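Minutes, project huddle
Topic: does the predicted pose make sense with manganese (II) ion bound?
PN asked that the exact inputs be recorded in the minutes so nobody has to dig through chat later. Recorded below.
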Amino acid sequence: MIFSTRLNSFKTKKELYFSVDQEITTIDLIKRMATVEGLTHVELNYPEHFKTNSVDEIKAALDELHVEVSGIALRFSGIYDDGEFTNLNENVRDQAIKITKEAIEVCQDLGGTTTTIWLANDGFDYSFQLDYEQAWIQTVDALRDIAKSYPTMNISFEYKPYQPRAFSLVADLGLSLLMVEEVGQPNVGITLDFCHMLMKKENPAYAVALAARKNRLMGFHLNDGYKDNDDGLMLGSVHLMQTLEFIYYAKKYSYEGLIYFDTFPIREDPVAECTQNIKTYKALDQIIMDTGMEKIEQLIKERNAVRVQQFMLSILPTLQV
Ligand SMILES: [Mn+2]
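Predicted holo structure (tokens), as shared on screen:
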């Protein structure tokens, strides 16, 4: 299993690690992140994390710390309020595609495999604000152009139902699968973000099963929340059983990609918080192993809610965290 988390989480509780007046660079954050027990990979945002240090400096620091890069995540800010791949202004749209291609090249340079695209601003807030079919086609075309330009690199689409827009253009798993199918390139997949799925009232394990069935499962962003917002709480803290079910399906479909904790520790020590997320994931994985995949499969086949409830309560005392 390979694990990473949000680099920006390590800006939190500054006083625990950094000196008071220290100006914090990307390399400083990576160094703090590397102190997390069990962490194997670093995921960087582009262009955000390449402002204080160059690609070569980051590469050297990673070598020194013996940490690998899993991939790059796009962060569109500034000129993209009206949309990224669907922006009416051709220059802005071209710039969004150009930045995405740059991110993939940086990912390649750093030895990463996957570039994750979250289109924060491609969506709408009002009726009659967007030509839906035009926007859909613009997104398909942009993703196809990007994927075809880098056939050996993974491009993963991370959907979110809303925030910051009232409606995202590609808002759920079904739409994401339709989008990926229309793009029609083998190197395009889907990143499942647990909170985003909860916000859409999707059952996370169902999304794993369908994305895996279509062979498009490319990334996990794990966290937890109370459904309405992208709360970014610790793994299993609210939806423990849905997290267990999610991990069961990840095992069933032999998911071996990155397990990235997209959490937002603010009042917690981010090192302790991430260490706990890794421990929780491993503990839940262990429960599934100890129970046995066949036994769980049998339980599912029974379709007996009372038996499921008994199973869930029976495993709680065996949790080792
Ligand atoms: Mn995410």
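Observations noted during the meeting:
- Residues 170 and 178 are 9 Å apart (CA to CA).
- The pocket of manganese (II) ion is lined by residues 158, 193, 221, 262 (CB under 6 Å).
No decisions taken; revisit at the next huddle.
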